[in-house]
Structures are given as C-alpha cells and as structure tokens.
Amino acid sequence: MVLSLTESGARLFVTRFLEQFISIGCVTILEEGGTMFIFGEKDSTCPLKSILKIHSPQFYWKVMTQADLGLADAYISGDFSFVDKDSGLLNLIMILIANRDQRSPKSNLVKKRGWWTPVFLTAGLASVKYYLKHVLKQNTLTQARKNISSHYDLSNEFFGLFMDDTMMYSSAIFKSENEDPRTAQMRKISLLIEKARIEKNHEVLEMGCGWGTFAIEVVKRTGCKYTGITLSIEQLKYAKAKVKEAGLQGRITFMLCDYRQLSDARKYDRIIACEMIEAVGHEFMDKFFSCCEDALAENGIFVLQFTAIPEALYNESRLTSGFITEYIFPGGCLPSLARVTSAMASSSRLCIENVENIGIHYYHTLRCWRKNVLERQKQIIDLGFDDKFIRTWEYYFDYCAAGFKTLTLRSYQIVFSRPGNVAAFGDDDPFRSSTRKNNII
Fold first, then answer.
1. Rounded alpha-carbon distances, angstroms, from residue 356 to 91, 228, 303, 312
2. At 179, phi and psi to the nearest 5?
3. What is the distance between the alpha carbons of residues 403 and 100, in angstroms, rounded to a whole number?
4. 10 Å Cβ neighbour count for 186?
5. Structural domains of the chain, with CATH
6. What is the dihedral of CA 361, 366, 367, 373, to 10 degrees?
7. pLDDT digits (tens, 9 = 90+) for 429-439
8. 371 vs 20, 161, 276, 404, CA distance in Å?
9. Please, which residues bridge with residue 355 across strands?
10. The whole model's pTM is what?
11. CA gap 282, 272 in Å, rounded
C-alpha cells in the first residue's frame, strides 16, 4: 500500500493511539502488501478480537481527522472491511467500548485523545461543522417533520425487507435466542397491552404509531378505540391501508400530527409511546411530558418504551453529532433515565409505577435486522439504493447492538400513572406471581 506523506503521518498517529489505548481484546490491522499491526492482547485465546483489512490509506486520514465519524465514513466508503464478516464490526466496537470503560475520564490517556469523540469512547466536542448541523436539526414543529421524513419515508418496501411482517421498528422480546422475530414482536405487543391494562371501554393514544400493527392488535384483542399519530407520510399510508384491509376503520384513527398539536380538550385513558421519545430531543423533553399530562385522563396509564444512554454520557452525547444523528436519525437524542424522570417530575403530575430493562432483547432484534439486510442486498439495490447505503445500515445495526451487548445502552419500559390511581392499580395482589415470568430471557 502506497501512502502519501500526510497519510503516513495519519497512520503513525492512529497506530500510536491504538497502542496506548487497547489493552482489552485484540485488534489487528492488515494492509494490502502484507504490513500488519497488532494491538492489545496477543494471546491466540483472546475471546474478543477483530481483524481489519485496509483497502485505502484514506482509512487513517479519516479516523485521525473525524474520529468516530471518520471510522464510520471509512467503513461506508469501503476503505476497510473485516476478515470475520459476521462479527468483525460488532467486535471492534465492543473492544473500543471495553477499553473506554476501564479508564477514568480524568486519566492522562483520555486527556491526550480529545480528538476522539464518539459516545462509546470519550466525551468531547465534535467538529464545528457537525455541531452546527446538529444544532440546525433541533426538533421544532417544522424541523421535526423533516427529520422524521428523512428516515421513515425512505421506502416502506425497504423497511419490510429487514423487519418481519409485523413491521414493528422497536425491540422485540424473545423467549429464546432462536425464536423467530415475529413471535418475539407479538410478545412485546402483548406486554405493552398488559402493562397498560387496556380494556374495551378505553380510548388509547399511540404517539408514533409506526406502520399500524400495534393499532390493529390492540383493537382486535381488547375492542378499545384507538388513535395514532405520526409525522411520516409513508407510515400513514401503509397503516391506513392495513387497517382498511382488517376492516377496523370504525375503531382506529390515524393522524399526521405532532404530539404538540394534540387537542387539549380530548383525554385518553391510555397512552403508548414505543421508541418515539428518542426523536423528541433534549430541548423539548419537558414539553413532551406536559403534553402527556394534558392528554392523559385522570385515572389513566402511560407506557413508555425507549432506548437510554448512561447519565455520565448524556450531556456530551446531546451536544455532539455522532454517527446516529449524522447518518440515521437527524435530530435524534437518546435520553438518560434521569433526563426522562426529571422531565416527568418538572412538567407533569405523573409518577412511576414500574420500570423494566429489556435491553438484551434489543441486541437480538438488531442482529436479526442486520442479517436480513445483508441477505437481501439485491432486493435493496433493486429499490434504488447502493452499496454505501447497505453498509451504512449494517454499521448502524452493529453500532447499536454493541451498545446493548455491553450494557452501555438500555431499553426501558416504564409505566406511569398519577398518585392515588386506585381505579387502575387498586386490585393488585402483591402475593400473586407474575403471569409472564417465563416470557423474558
């Protein structure tokens, strides 16, 4: 591999950093021409290893100058690949996480690497360019619809190629690692219905209705009346068609509507928000809970499912533009559990009835989605997308899966209500065993 002077300097910079940084796991870099670098544990029995094949010296330059975004850009552009095509990328991110987590944020090594800014590795400010783009994507009423559309309106056919026929774009709940995703998604729906205690006489609001599967299932199972809101035109078209096919138009209503535009006059007995709060943003979290307070009936229940980042990483994460906000979800912001509960406390009378972490199930969900994307590359290309697009989504799924596998990310289901809600919870028997213990890994 022939390197220019600047590329040689970048290689020296990156390899020296990796020599100091990696002590857990093993990362091997193979260059075309035979040059090899090994970092970390050199024992052949090391359980966590990743071997990179460098195809372009631009790999070093991008990583040196753009840190985590450079690593992502290099992979998406084909500047490097992995010997182990199934687990190489996942293992690399897990190794970087493991080595970050063993060090104090005040260590000399951390201080020396202020250029490296991914959420999983360090705290620090992103480049001015990415930071400004991040600020401009904040979820105002106008911008929120653009942010949602840029992701969810890509193609219903594309989403259908990697999800199962439930089209549930959120963590499933598996009974075993080998269970089919559809069954696991239906279990998640059952759990949401159970936690919300939905009954026939209830009016249910779903914030972020997706492609409509929850709507159809909850109405079929309980006979309730349902309203769902979305900012995605493509989701709305698909969901309406599925409801018409099911013959449930009389009990299901969908609206192209921001949560901030809901009528103050209408109250709902139950509210469900399954992985939509990540699109709310830090600046609007209090407003979100204020809207939930206004929309929820006095004896109502609100069930929220969301991905959470550790509190120690939250402030730096929300102030930077990382891979997810740059490539996948513009305007997105993973909240911490503390941010959610503080917004709840300051903007509503809600209180927490139950919290459950289902994060390990998200790891399995993401690995299923990744597998489907790679197995159906030809169909995806036939839709008009290219190899870069496919590598972007592969990186996205492995990036998130590594977070859940290492317990850096959590996926919470929280049940909210108001103090004194005897109508909903007064018949609970504390001595009655759970009916679903065996449904969770």
1. 27, 24, 11, 20
2. -70, 145
3. 13
4. 18
5. 5-124 (3.30.1050), 135-439 (3.40.50.150)
6. 150
7. 666 554 444 34
8. 34, 11, 24, 17
9. 414
10. 0.91
11. 20
